[in-house]
């Protein structure tokens, strides 16, 4: 389904009945990443998936997509389809968007799950990597995207889930260069939002991967503990919905109950 927002199409899907659950994808992904998760959740829940700005079938809204702008777009969709309260689950960049949403629209949330994500801002090193990637992608898009996707998995998973990895790469390659750059810059400038987790009036749940190449295990566990949030550590890398699908789905079903 398509909604028009500020002159661009926003793609979303709204399926199932019951309490609402909103699923937000990560960088270079789109709402199709949730297909296996959604299949289970819609048995008992109303599930809304949204293509974030510059991803999937949703177009770009400028040359920088701050997390706040993406959160405002999510809010627009939820208001348009008359969702008053929902659980929100965000994978990686989707987690950053969820936190920006929680900061501004906390009354909408029944609970927040940060899946392979963090409330911390980028380190200086990470900020420099994003800026460098944005320069390189302008002349070497395909190689950069393929490398970015491979770097999300633990090495053994690349062979174990080779078909899924190739599918994700092909989906990622459909992202426009502008969408890549705008999202990277939005993530690069995002602030620390640990206070959102600490002061949340709703439950916050972290899904952390043991061998995540993007996020340090000990740092994210400490973040969850310091802010009195529940968490689970799963085997695998950054792509828990591929590398540890069954345990991830079980964890999410338990969370939204």
UniProtKB/TrEMBL annotation:
<dbReference type="GO" id="GO:0016787">
    <property type="term" value="F:hydrolase activity"/>
</dbReference>
<dbReference type="InterPro" id="IPR050266">
    <property type="entry name" value="AB_hydrolase_sf"/>
</dbReference>
<protein>
    <submittedName>
        <fullName>Alpha/beta fold hydrolase</fullName>
    </submittedName>
</protein>
<dbReference type="InterPro" id="IPR029058">
    <property type="entry name" value="AB_hydrolase_fold"/>
</dbReference>
<dbReference type="InterPro" id="IPR000073">
    <property type="entry name" value="AB_hydrolase_1"/>
</dbReference>
<feature type="domain" description="AB hydrolase-1">
    <location>
        <begin position="20"/>
        <end position="244"/>
    </location>
</feature>
<dbReference type="Pfam" id="PF00561">
    <property type="entry name" value="Abhydrolase_1"/>
</dbReference>
<keyword id="KW-0378">Hydrolase</keyword>
């Amino acid at each position: 389904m398509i909604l028009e927002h500020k002159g661009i199409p926003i793609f979303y899907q709204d399926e199932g009945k019951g309490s609402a659950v909103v699923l937000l994808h990560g960088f270079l992904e789109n709402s199709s990443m949730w297909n296996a998760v959604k299949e289970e959740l819609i048995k008992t829940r109303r599930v809304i998936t949204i293509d974030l700005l510059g991803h999937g079938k949703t177009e770009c809204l400028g040359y920088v997509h701050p997390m706040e702008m993406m959160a405002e777009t999510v809010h627009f969709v939820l208001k348009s389809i008359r969702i008053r309260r929902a659980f929100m689950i965000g994978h990686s960049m989707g987690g950053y968007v969820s936190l920006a949403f929680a900061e501004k629209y906390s009354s909408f949330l029944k609970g927040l799950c940060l899946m392979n994500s963090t409330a911390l801002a980028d380190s200086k090193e990470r900020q420099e990597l994003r800026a460098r990637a944005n320069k390189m992608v302008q002349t070497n898009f395909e190689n950069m995207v393929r490398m970015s996707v491979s770097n999300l998995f633990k090495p053994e998973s690349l062979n174990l889930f080779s078909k899924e990895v190739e599918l994700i790469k092909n989906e990622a390659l459909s992202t426009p260069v502008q969408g890549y750059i705008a999202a990277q810059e939005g993530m690069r400038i995002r602030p620390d939002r640990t206070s959102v987790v600490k002061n949340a009036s709703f439950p916050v749940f972290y899904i952390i991967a043991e061998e995540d190449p993007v996020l340090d295990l000990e740092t994210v566990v400490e973040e969850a503990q310091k802010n009195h949030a529940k968490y689970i550590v799963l085997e695998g890398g950054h792509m828990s919905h591929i590398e540890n699908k069954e345990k991830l789905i079980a964890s999410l079903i338990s969370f939204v109950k």
